[in-house]
TrEMBL record:
<keyword id="KW-0732">Signal</keyword>
<keyword id="KW-1133">Transmembrane helix</keyword>
<protein>
    <recommendedName>
        <fullName>Protein kinase domain-containing protein</fullName>
    </recommendedName>
</protein>
<feature type="domain" description="Protein kinase">
    <location>
        <begin position="1"/>
        <end position="278"/>
    </location>
</feature>
<keyword id="KW-0067">ATP-binding</keyword>
<dbReference type="InterPro" id="IPR045874">
    <property type="entry name" value="LRK10/LRL21-25-like"/>
</dbReference>
<keyword id="KW-0418">Kinase</keyword>
<keyword id="KW-0325">Glycoprotein</keyword>
<keyword id="KW-0723">Serine/threonine-protein kinase</keyword>
<keyword id="KW-0812">Transmembrane</keyword>
<dbReference type="InterPro" id="IPR000719">
    <property type="entry name" value="Prot_kinase_dom"/>
</dbReference>
<dbReference type="Pfam" id="PF07714">
    <property type="entry name" value="PK_Tyr_Ser-Thr"/>
</dbReference>
<keyword id="KW-0472">Membrane</keyword>
<dbReference type="InterPro" id="IPR001245">
    <property type="entry name" value="Ser-Thr/Tyr_kinase_cat_dom"/>
</dbReference>
<keyword id="KW-0547">Nucleotide-binding</keyword>
<keyword id="KW-0808">Transferase</keyword>
<dbReference type="GO" id="GO:0004674">
    <property type="term" value="F:protein serine/threonine kinase activity"/>
</dbReference>
Length: 304
């Protein structure tokens, strides 16, 4: 897949995504057109059209000048590298993404499960308003469906919910997107990937467990140096919401409507969730899209 900057005849700048003709016999193209053409929301990227000629497939979107969220949250000092982006802006971005997902799950006439929520698929406009993009793995649901059927796993390792890989963890539903969202929010507030192979201590490799231990023991979160009281509350709120979202049992995760309420509500109303049961990954498999059976290599064990 390649993305190019283009210009329409009326002068509008657009992003043109060229899909690999051999990938999935056009399934990704069909998924994206079928799902995103049904959407209209400030936090979902606007779909302008498509081209289909022989084996060539192209999707046309509004241009997002600031690119993906990914480049603003990783690195030694992402908050400074991101220029305008501080904790308050990241917090507003997290709320915007939550609203976009809430719309996909409950606001569309035909609900949409995205299945690939991650920083790379969140685009930022000129005002850093976040927009959910890349619906190649999305699935349309009937309004009566709460649990959906799927032939195999789909998503990106590091963000994929356990039940998407194995139904032993529960049914696949909109709560699977909630899990991916929670993993992403933890990376946003932590300023690092949830699996950090660069640290010296194995206890610090898996960020969700490391930060949960600090919350549990009421230790300093130690993420961004000196923070104002407001920044400290934002940090704690995003961590608590992220940890609720990545609960191993899908039924314990909040809906995206509840996530918006939690993020916009009072910090005193947020309790520390149960510790997620998934253990640290046995080996680093970062940002690797899967469609079948790699998840058990990513997760070393399930702790009772």
């Amino acid at each position: 897949m390649a993305v190019y900057k283009g210009k329409l005849l009326d002068g509008r700048l657009v992003a043109v995504k060229i899909l690999n003709a051999s990938k999935g016999n056009g399934e990704e193209f069909i998924n994206e057109v079928a799902s995103i053409s049904r959407t209209s929301h400030v936090n979902v990227v606007a779909f302008l059209g498509f081209c289909l000629e022989g084996g060539k497939r192209a999707l046309i979107y509004e241009l997002m000048p600031n690119g993906s969220l990914e480049k603003f949250i990783y690195g030694e000092n992402p908050l400074k590298n991101g220029g305008h982006l501080g904790l308050e802006k990241l917090y507003q971005i997290a709320i915007g993404i939550a609203r976009g997902l809430e719309y996909l799950h409950h606001g569309c006439k035909t609900p949409i499960l995205h299945f690939d929520i991650k920083p790379h698929n969140i685009l930022l406009d000129e005002e850093f308003c976040p927009k959910i993009s890349d619906f190649g793995l999305a699935k349309l649901c009937t309004t009566k469906e709460s649990i959906v059927s799927m032939a195999g796993a789909r998503g990106t390792i590091g963000y994929i919910a356990p039940e998407v890989f194995s139904r032993n963890f529960g049914g696949v539903s909109h709560k699977s997107d909630v899990y991916s969202y929670g993993m992403m929010v933890l990376e946003m507030v932590g300023g690092r990937r949830n699996v950090n192979v660069a640290v010296d201590h194995s206890s610090e490799i898996y960020f969700p467990h490391w930060i949960y231990k600090r919350l549990e023991q009421d230790e300093d979160l130690g993420l961004h140096g000196d923070m104002t009281t407001e920044e400290g509350e934002i940090t704690r709120k995003m961590i608590l919401v992220g940890l609720w979202c990545i609960q191993t049992d899908p039924s314990q995760r909040p809906s995206m409507s509840k996530v918006v309420e939690m993020l916009e509500g009072d910090i005193e109303g947020l309790e520390i969730p149960p510790k997620p049961y998934l253990s640290s990954p046995s080996r680093p498999l970062l940002d690797s899209s899967i469609t079948s059976t790699d998840f058990l290599d990513y997760v070393s064990a399930i702790k009772p």
